[in-house]
């Protein structure tokens, strides 16, 4: 009796995925690049893949998505830490080395510098973290028909509007 040949494995049509060769071996580098401030677009260029492919892999490959998120979390934590320091104010030490005429260390001068709390940092934090209480700009919905009618304005009101438009 003749032996049956094993069924041939079907290959998927189309181009092979670059994930195993262009991304998987570089997950730790990708995490580092995200953490050091590279944009996702620049990382895709460094890896030699297109932006759409990069984002497709982010959606489809959990280990890749996790590596990128870990890098982003560290950056976000550093940014928040810096913002909080700016909000609270801080004290810094500046060291100045003083050399003698032979170029050797003679002494070190230490200056203490106090940076007061940064009002802009406080406002930024409050607007973005506690926006329901500190939203300065009110949001208004305006309906507009598309036309502007000047018929109901008096001559004085028309002249005032004209001056506003001219910037006077």
What are its keywords?
alpha+beta; 168 residues; two-stranded antiparallel sheet
Chain-averaged pLDDT: 86
**What is the radius of gyration?**
31 Å
Structural class of the helix and strand makeup? alpha+beta
Quote the distance from N terminus to C terminus: 104 Å
**What is the topology, as strand order, of the major beta sheet?**
1-2
**Low-confidence residue ranges:** none
Give the oligomeric state of the chains in this entry, treating copies of one chain as homo and distinct chains as hetero: single chain
The structural domain count equals 2
Inertia-based shape: flat
Protein name: Transposase
InterPro entries: Homeodomain-like_sf (IPR009057), Resolvase_HTH_dom (IPR006120)
Domain Resolvase HTH: 14-59
GO molecular function, one term: DNA strand exchange activity
């Amino acid at each position: 009796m003749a032996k049956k040949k094993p069924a041939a494995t079907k290959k998927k049509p189309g181009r092979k995925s670059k994930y195993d060769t262009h991304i998987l071996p570089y997950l730790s580098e990708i995490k580092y690049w995200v953490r050091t401030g590279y944009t996702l677009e620049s990382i895709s260029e460094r890896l030699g893949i297109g932006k759409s492919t990069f984002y497709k892999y982010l959606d489809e490959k959990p280990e890749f998505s996790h590596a990128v998120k870990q890098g982003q979390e560290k950056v976000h934590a550093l940014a928040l830490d810096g913002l909080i320091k700016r909000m609270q104010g801080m004290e810094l030490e500046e060291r100045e080395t003083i050399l003698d005429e032979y170029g050797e260390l003679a002494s070190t001068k230490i200056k203490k510098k106090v940076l007061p709390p940064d009002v802009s940092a406080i406002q930024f934090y409050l607007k973005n973290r506690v926006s329901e209480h500190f939203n300065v700009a009110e949001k208004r919905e305006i309906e507009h028909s598309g036309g502007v009618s000047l018929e109901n304005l008096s001559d004085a009101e028309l002249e005032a509007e004209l001056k506003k438009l001219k910037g006077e």
